[in-house]
Amino acid sequence: MTTAHRPSDPAGPSDPAGLSDVAGSSGAAGLSGAAGLSGAAGSSGAAGLSGAAGSSASVPTASSGGGQAPLPGQAPLPGQAPLPGRSLLRIGPVSLLIRRRAVLVAAALTVLLVLAVVLSLSLGTPYVAPADVLRALSGAGTPYDLVVFDLRLPRVVLAAAAGAAFGVAGTLIQSVARNPLASPDVIGITQGAGLAATVALTSGMAAVLVAPTALVGGLLAAVLLFALGARHGLAAQRFVLAGVAVAFAFRALTEVVMLTADPIDGLRAQIWLIGTLAGKGWTEAAWIAGTLLVLLPVLAWAGWALNSTALDDDTARGVGLRPVARRIGLAGTGVLVAAMVTAQVGAVDFVALVAPQVARRLVRTERPPLVCSALLGALLLVLADLAGRRLLAPTQLPAGVLTAAIGGPYLIFLLLRGRRRSS
């Protein structure tokens, strides 16, 4: 078996600029962080072009079967051999080029996710042995059916669905922005939903209307983001800078609303803004899963269209693509998923930021892989919710607190990695 092909890392050259600016700010939310994102976006674009061009220029000659190997992401023509590390799958008239390492990583993440789900269903009061959990899930009938099905399973399913949705949204937005720091909680989608939810919670609105109101807020933030960043074909740098500006504006308005509200209502809004799965279950999971199912054809297209996000506009047009329409479609899908999941579980930060980049490093691709990012996001949020329930039991920590604890060291890792590369 040939070794896996490892293209140049487009995020690599962009990290030093972006991270050095982040270090100069008071965190990713600092004003100078906007400059960091700008620099990272610009550098990343150049890096992405370099990586794409490098991949095209260094396409290896087929070692067998004759002909020349196809471009990355393209199915080979008759007479061509797939790139090293990839296999060709033909289903009737459809040809798929599959990266074998991505399949192995996806399988490993699926196994870890299943183990995390069983562990989350087992731990608690009362403790349920994993064997009893599996028997309950199989419908064999156990004394723990009520605990497993009614008390724990809805929350675990919600964590998995929300984590997968955050992973998908982060992958799409980071690919369009060409920036590893771009995520829904950086470009203003989370802050728009948070402002709307804060207004709903502090104005006496019925609890059942909080999630729809938050969804509307997230979508309005997306509209404002596209209005500000749509010039010049939704360029990556302008898109990220517009998102940071929108995030700052909505965050400031949210703080104003909380300071002028009743303290109890302000505390409820604060808990929502942190992000928690407590008291939620099947209804929220059904909304998130339904959104992903409805968007499944779009996501299938997105998984293929992401291959072109590293190309500059002239190169993309040269191979017959419409880069502006693709960027708008990918970014629009990402912000829609992000707005929906944030409306259901609150502002759970860092999952959409961390999952795509960790998945990209595991698969060793030039862009975040969609499926592996979704699986890793689900795994992260299931583990974060489990830790939030058990670390200080009987006190429960919001899942957003634990994901922030994961995201902080991740940002430090990016910072150190960026400095090492720049030196």
From TrEMBL:
Pfam families: FecCD. Residues 1-44, 57-79 are annotated as: Disordered. The chain crosses the membrane at residues 102-123, 153-173, 194-227, 239-261, 282-304, 367-384, 396-416. InterPro entries: ABC_BtuC-like, ABC_transptr_permease_BtuC. This is Iron complex transport system permease protein. It is a multi-pass membrane protein. Residues 17-44, 57-72 have a biased composition (Low complexity). Its main location: membrane. Belongs to the binding-protein-dependent transport system permease family. FecCD subfamily. SUPFAM superfamilies: ABC transporter involved in vitamin B12 uptake, BtuC. The keyword Cell wall biogenesis/degradation does not apply. CDD domains: TM_ABC_iron-siderophores_like (cd06550). It comes from the Bacteria. Keywords: Cell membrane, Membrane, Transmembrane, Transmembrane helix, Transport. It is found in: Cell membrane.
